[in-house]
Amino acid sequence: MIIISVISHPSLRHFNLVMAYTQSPIETDLYMAVPHGIETIEGNTKDYVLKLLANIHGQKQAARVRTQYLLESIGFTQSCIDEYVFYRDEIIFIIYLDDGIFLGTSDDQLSYIIKEFTDIGLQIKDQGHLADYVGVNIKWLPDGSYKFSQQTLIDSIIANMGVTFQDFTKPVPAKCTLRLHTFLALPPFQEEWNYRSAVGKLKYHGQMS
């Protein structure tokens, strides 16, 4: 869909929906356990819960609540084929979490729809013409072709793990069919690099490749 958008639409606008899910009102009273690392002044942390004041990423219904809010607020129709694609008249609206693309027939048309978003109170950052989207860099080449790459995300993962080219022990990566398991008998993770951040980026890269 992104490739078709880049090639076939005369006007594109890349935007960021600030704190995407939290801008949608919460639909009912919800509570969550106190996050790891936060301690209470009195008593056992496990005896307390937090009441959510906004729709947040991680709730099972978070995406549905956000989508319903967008549909009701700005009158877009959700695609029956792709749940991340919306349309209204000549405008197509693509969103993945907080990154989105507007496609239309003119820049004035897209500027107007962005104003509609801000008029209903949504915080949206207009990032201009599409160059990077969900970690994918899009480059227009002199011969008229397009190059899609994720080099920045790949470099970030490598740097995150502190890996250098001297550390490579095998000429090829691990098999994609190899499943990793937990080893509860081994000592706790104590490396200097951020395990959760690295795994999160790897999962994101795998889903967006």
Number of strands: 11
Distance between the termini: 13 Å
Mean pLDDT across the residues is 78
The chain-level structural class is alpha+beta
Helical run tally: 5
Major sheet: arrangement of strands: 4-5-6-7-1-8
Give the CA-based shape. Answer: flat
Pick out the low-confidence regions.
none
Give the H and E element order. Answer: HEEEHEEEEHEEEEHH
Q: Describe the biggest sheet?
A: 6 strands, antiparallel
Beta-strand content: 15-25%
> Into which percent range does the helicity of residues fall?
25-40%
Describe the structure.
The protein has helices at residues 2-8, 62-74, 107-119, 151-160, 195-208, and strands at residues 11-17, 31-33, 49-51, 77-78, 85-88, 91-96, 99-104, 124-126, 132-133, 136-140, 146-149. The chain is of the alpha+beta class. The strands form three sheets. A six-stranded antiparallel sheet has the order 4-5-6-7-1-8, with helices on one face. A three-stranded antiparallel sheet has the order 9-10-11. A hairpin with a 2-residue loop joins strand 9 (132-133) and strand 10 (136-140). The protein is flat, with a radius of gyration of 21 Å. It starts with a helix and ends with a helix.
